[in-house]
Specification:
This protein has one helix at about 50-55, and strands spanning about 5-15, 15-25, 30-40, 45-50, 65, 70, 75-80, 85, 90-95, 105-110, 125, 170, 180-185. It is mainly β and about 190 residues long. The longest helix has 4 residues, at about 50-55. About 20% of the residues are buried.
Length: about 190
């Protein structure tokens, strides 16, 4: 993928579901953006730097083994999220870097009818540097309709003032609650 180019990884007619993505991206992971479009969307349901999508937020190899995401030696990224679509699926990769990138990848899944109550997979990337002191940092907001919150890849760093990031209090407000529906004592619990 050349500098400032967007490459289409997949265009699949539906109905069907993506079940696995494997890839070995090179280059600067924060400058490589993956996007997923379901059905006839003009705006992507997924728009995220490739490293952050695979839980490697600092652009460095970080081993990870979970049911949903695995990162293996040599930056072999794997994800196993179920990603159904009804009409079509389009996945693109944008190189915002200055160097050409080589990408080996495989996207697998199946074709077939999707249950009526199946949801669409969404992922969003947010960054604030530095985070404003004394103000809550919002990870996700204004999501409407039925769905399931699967989690967060949380990459944080120290600001050099001998502070500890683990004391951030995670709060979730579900279905318009005035008080937190879930409230953790710090990010180490989350």
């Amino acid at each position: 993928i050349g500098p400032n180019e967007t490459f289409t990884l997949a265009e699949i007619e539906g109905p069907g579901s993506i079940q696995q993505i494997w890839m070995t991206p090179t280059g600067e992971w924060r400058k490589t953006i993956i996007r997923f479009y379901w059905d006839d969307e003009k705006e992507p349901s997924v728009e995220c730097p490739i490293g952050d999508f695979f839980c490697s937020g600092w652009g460095l190899y970080s081993p990870l083994s979970s049911l949903a995401v695995c990162v293996n030696p040599g930056s072999a990224f794997n994800c196993y999220w179920q990603m159904p679509f009804r009409k079509k699926c389009k996945i693109t990769m944008e190189n915002r870097g200055e160097q050409k990138q080589t990408l080996f990848y495989m996207i697998s899944g199946w074709h077939g009818e999707i249950p009526e109550d199946s949801g669409y997979f969404h992922a969003v990337y947010r960054q604030e540097h530095p985070v404003q002191k004394g103000r809550s940092y919002t990870v996700l907001d204004n999501v409407e309709g039925p769905g399931m919150f699967a989690g967060v890849c949380f990459s944080s760093g120290m600001n050099g003032n001998n502070t500890c990031w683990v004391e951030g209090e995670i709060k979730m407000y579900i279905d318009g609650a005035k008080y937190p529906s879930m409230n953790y004592t710090g990010t180490e619990d989350y």
